[in-house]
Task: structure prediction
Amino acid sequence: MDAAILIPFLLIIGLAVGSFLNVCIYRIPIGKSIIRPGSFCPLCKKPITWYDNIPIISYVLLGGRCRWCKEAISLRYPIVESLTGALFTLFFYYLVIKTGEPLEVYVIYTLLGCALIVSSFIDMELYIIPNEITYAGMVSAPLFSLLFPSLHHSTDNLRVFNLLGSVRLDALAASLLGILIGGGLVLVFGVLGTLLLRKEAMGMGDVKLMAMVGGIMGWKPAVVIFFLAPFFALAVA
Result:
């Protein structure tokens, strides 16, 4: 079966996952369970029925307002759903169809993308990056690398560590180095920035976030991301 046929289905799954990410963005910072209770209006606390919880469509049909209290629903909800749908489909097209990466690489990169979406929207609103996301990512990255060594083959990290004599151990070492360099870069520049500016330049949340990214993607992409990120941040600012 042509892999491209899966794209519409992945879009639907991505939109649904995006709806769940909205729950995470709202509940994680206030310490509420992301499983129970079901979706409810943050303002009037009325439960949201399934037909009012269809990604993007329900937002449009309701005119961006709660059915019960008529208060405006944040535009963040359809934005996150759209971003997640795009992530699921574009990652599949680029990683699986275009470059031929194994399916597990697509799944892990998509999980990383979801973690970054949640972290980014929480950070934009509250100026924090939740430990629940970064710690889980930092622990998962070496485990994923050990189980799926193909995660690091495209970064040439395995060539650096091939003296270990095991592809799985080489991938594990590549992940640990990515954590060290990814987080270390932010930590070093954060300390230097604090000394120069005489105020906190970067928080530990940024350190842990880049450590998570480095653990999944390897140290080379982490370095590239570190130097490119400020330009994207300036565009948003």
Remarks:
- Residues 167-197 form the longest helix (31 residues).
